[in-house]
Amino acid sequence: MKSTLYSLQYIRGIAATFVLLLHATSLFKVYHHYSYLNNFFRAGYMGVDIFFVLSGFIIYFVHRPDIGNKEKLKPFLLKRFIRVYPVYWVVLLVVTPLYFLIPSFGEGFETNPMFIIKSWLLIPDIHFPILNVAWSLRHEVLFYIIFGLILIFNKNRKVSYSVIALWLTTTCLLFIFMPRDIWEGQNIWIKFLFNPYNIDFALGSLAAHLFVSKENKLKNFGKLSLFFGLIWFAFSWYNQFSKIIEVHRIIAWGIPAFFIIFGLVSLESKGKLRHINILFILGNASYSIYLINYISVSFLNKIFNYLNLYDIFGYFISITLCVIITLIAGCILHYVIEMPLIKFIKGLILERKSKGKNNKKEAVA
């Protein structure tokens, strides 16, 4: 089985672009009362659900052999830490001072020391983090911790799976039976630990489990799964505007993401998916694009205003340029800062391990 699935990167790139287009649409609607593409990308928030399902798939696909092996806990959490925090902190180093230099930039609580600590560590709070898009990273970190916990039940996968089952069952029961108004009034930690977003991660893990299962023949229905997921996705998009029925985002976007991802990886495993370089590049840079997309569009809007570029190009071309520039900026951040930073940190860790081994040898000698 292929260790690298390019289709996952394609989906990452598309999801990040959806979120970017949502923020571009929303910001220009507020600032200029302009409906970009008739608000077509108003449903772009579903890119976050796609990211969550993808995360569930990738973590299970890569680390399934580690389940029940407590020795894998430390390297797993270390890898996740390196993947999430360093470049996030780089962006925060730029954004955080703005709330002190320009008080009108926020609502006041952003300069509170405890709030800053929570934002930097991605600890839940009643407010969005300093970098508002990082709210989703809080849920990513929770999923990593939960998955990490099941690694510690050494050689007893039944215990590991029981922990997951209990967590997800509680999440599903609250999701199905608790009225929204009561849910909104719950303690912040209850809403965080048993948030419906957990179901997105579970759907991704289920897709990965079905994909790697040797006994499972569902991979033969990759085209059908992809088609079904796209039809569901299209209906949810149409329903976003027509409001035929009220549907929770997990049902509207999480479930079709499950079918689309399973369909694509199944087709790729059979060599029925061609390489799309631009999507692969965007997929690699998707995290960086996601981190800066909101502040980038907001900043570019101010630049375009100052230079009177809206009068020259018009709103449609100007917004499109903002989107393209943000995608390029995200790619630059990824290849110039994120990748070298991750490589540097990994090098430090390897060097530290090497010194530790040498010290042990000297002690034995």
From TrEMBL:
Give the Acyltransferase domain ranges.
Answer: 6-326
Q: InterPro entries from the xrefs? A: Acyl_transf_3_dom, Acyltransferase_3
- Membrane-spanning residues: 12-31, 43-63, 84-106, 126-152, 159-177, 189-212, 221-238, 250-267, 279-300, 312-337
Q: Which GO terms describe its biological process?
A: polysaccharide biosynthetic process
Keyword tags = Membrane, Transmembrane, Transmembrane helix
- For this UniProt entry, what's an example GO CC term? membrane
What GO molecular function annotations does the UniProt record carry, in alphabetical order?
Answer: acyltransferase activity, transferring groups other than amino-acyl groups
Q: Does the keyword Secreted apply?
A: no
Q: What is its main location?
A: membrane
Residues folding into a coiled coil are none
Pfam families according to UniProt:
Acyl_transf_3
Locations listed in the record: Membrane
At the top level, the lineage of the source is: Bacteria
Family, as annotated? Belongs to the acyltransferase 3 family.
Provide the protein name: Acyltransferase 3 domain-containing protein
Give the species.
Answer: Neobacillus bataviensis LMG 21833
